[in-house]
Amino acid sequence: MENQLLEFIVRAKTYVIRNNPVIAAAKVGSKEYYYEAGDYKYLLSMFGNKRMIGQEIVWYKQRPIWGMSYTSRKLTDIIPEGFDEFLTSALLGVSVEKPFRGSEIYVREKFKYMCYSVGFASYFDGKEMVLHSNKVIYELIFSGGSIE
Question: Tell me, what DSSP letter sits at residue 24?
C-alpha cells in the first residue's frame, strides 16, 4: 500500500486524538471527526459510548480508498478513573507499519493496553483490550482495508 496514504492515516488519527475536531454529524446520533490534507480526507464516525460502533474512511481525490470498522464494549459498569486519558495515550502509538489502532503493548500504572492484528493495511482484522489491575475492562474488534 502506498506509503503516502499510510502516513496520511497516521497523521489524521493523531490529529483527531489530540484535537478532538468534532464536526456537525451527518448521521443522527453519531459523533464525527474530520481531517484533511491535500487531496486526502479522513472521517471518523462513532455511535455509542459503553457499547460503540465506529467507522473510519479515507478519500483520495473524492474517491473512498481505505476504511476500517469496529465495535467495542466496556466490560464493567464502573470505569476506573483515568481510563479515557490512558486509552487516548495508547492510541497515539499508531504507526505507519500498523495504521489501525495503538501500539501492540502500552502500560501505565495499573492500566495495560494490548492490540493484536493480522494482515496488512490493505486487508486486516484485529482486537484491542484494556486491562486494569490485570482484569479486562474494555475490548474492541476491528477490520478493514483498501476500498476498490
Answer: -
